[in-house]
Prior knowledge:
Layout: E1 15-19, H1 21-30, E2 43-50, E3 53-60, H2 64-69, E4 80-85, E5 88-94, E6 99-101, E7 106-108, H3 118-128, H4 130-145, H5 152-158, H6 162-168
Antiparallel strand pairs: 1-2, 1-7, 2-3, 3-5, 3-6, 4-5
Helix pairs in contact: 4-5
Amino acid sequence: MIIEKQIQKDSYKPRFCKVNKRYIQFMHKIDSRVSVKYNNRPFVILTIYINNNLYAVPLTSTTNRDRLAAGKKPRSNLITTKIIVQNVEIADLLYNNMFPVIESVLTDLHFNPLVDTFEINEERFIRKNWGKINAKAMSVYLMRYNTEGRNYHLLNKLCCDFKELEKSVSSFV
Length: 173
């Protein structure tokens, strides 16, 4: 398996984007773990390339506190980064649901840094922790296919089939 990290001009910056709904639905047909439930939410776009593909990582405002209140289990730290501002979890990055994207399906979002919103707080956290976020995305991708790894069966169940999705990117019209 060849994993390639290409350095680009803006590779040190995360991007907040909306992804075309038709593209999300297309990806969901290939792997049902690509979430269409919240397809109006912004996605954090990783500007690192894994196998020559740009990846979108879903950002959700449903925190572990919300999940526990709804009677669900908390998300695993193995596949999630909790966005914490002033000791409060305000959102999560879901690496298990990341999927490859192409530029033509992305619309960049811009937030006013002078207005204190959840999005601005999320953006600050993500920029501050960008190196760790990129490394974790790559790690989840690699662990998903490491049949000798201790988390293989869990990740095989919880994560999208990234390689299968990668094969389908070029067939989106």
